[in-house]
């Protein structure tokens, strides 16, 4: 029903708080899912599923979170492959690129800012990462190093 | 071999980012040129944002199919599923009692500047045609920015921009 983890938080809140868990535990679930790496929607599903029905609940919630996106994407991916070379598909892709760029840029700002006061250290780290990427360091390594330096910088 | 690489890439990308859209910087670097063109990558991210459900899983499906057909899709999916489920299970079973583990949250806080910079680099790449003063790109980017600022749903904005593209790029 929603297109991403953050968007689904409000929706899940209405469904589960009071019925399956208290508000405080829900906030904890959202907090954890922001801290643990990987897809947000899945982590929420695990946490809430576990609170509601133990291991079985976690697995049930997980399957519910996995099926709709994967099946719909499978169909779309196959369709896109089919129409790849049609002029309207090319137009659609070129048209969607600027919107996607803006969406990504705004999401990048949100990731960086995330409701906190921006710290000088974070800005410095961002500049260092930019520099490392421009020099040609592999992105995976840059992200990993940034995370490790975060353990010291953001204690 | 291809399948193993695919699995490793998605495992790595999902270990180093906390949400779907945040992973595209790393993902772009790993898959564009190897399995996907820039154009196909745009399609993958767009449809993952438009379709309901987890973006990360949908990116895995789309890219997996391109790389190695249906088998590729399942392998990429598995790689994306393992980090969040295994780690969250750990959180549920252990940290639940120990409360928040401080170093993990510092680690993730350290990731975010790097992830944000990588995301910007992908956005920058997508906007490249604007440098040749293609007015359509500028128009669509400005329109999308205004629409997203006024909190229109991203899926609707993307679709509208894509449809406008069909008309503008005939």
Written overview of the protein:
The complex is a heterodimer of chains A (about 160) and B (about 170). Chain A is mainly α and about 160 residues long. Helix content of chain A is about 80%, strand content about 0%. In chain A, helix 2 (about 25-35) crosses helix 3. The longest helix of chain A has about 45 residues, at about 40-85. Chain A starts with a helix and ends with a helix. Chain B is mainly α. Chain B has helices at about 1-15, 25-30, 40-50, 55-100, 100-125, 135-150, 155-170. In chain B, helix 1 (about 1-15) packs across helix 4 (about 55-100) and helix 6 packs antiparallel against helix 7 (about 155-170). The termini of chain B are far apart. The chains are: A mainly alpha (about 160), B mainly alpha (about 170). Chains A and B meet through helix 2, helix 3, helix 4, helix 5 and helix 6 of A and helix 1, helix 2, helix 3, helix 4 and helix 5 of B.
Give me a quick take on this structure:
Chain A has 155 residues and is mainly α. Chain A is built from six helices and no strands.
Give me the Rg of chain B, rounded.
18 Å
Q: Let me know the largest β-sheet of chain B.
A: none
Strand content of chain A: under 5%
Structure summary, number of beta strands of chain A: 0
- Would you identify the regions of chain B where 5 or more consecutive residues have pLDDT less than 50? none
Number of helical runs of chain A?
6
Order of helices and strands of chain A: HHHHHH
N- to C-terminal distance of chain A: 37 Å
Q: Average the pLDDT over all residues of chain A and give the rounded result.
A: 81
Helix run count of chain B: 7
Instruction: Spell the H/E element sequence of chain B.
Output: HHHHHHH
Q: Main sheet of chain A?
A: none
What are the segments of chain A in which pLDDT stays under 50 over at least 5 consecutive residues?
A: none
Rg over CA atoms of chain A: 20 Å
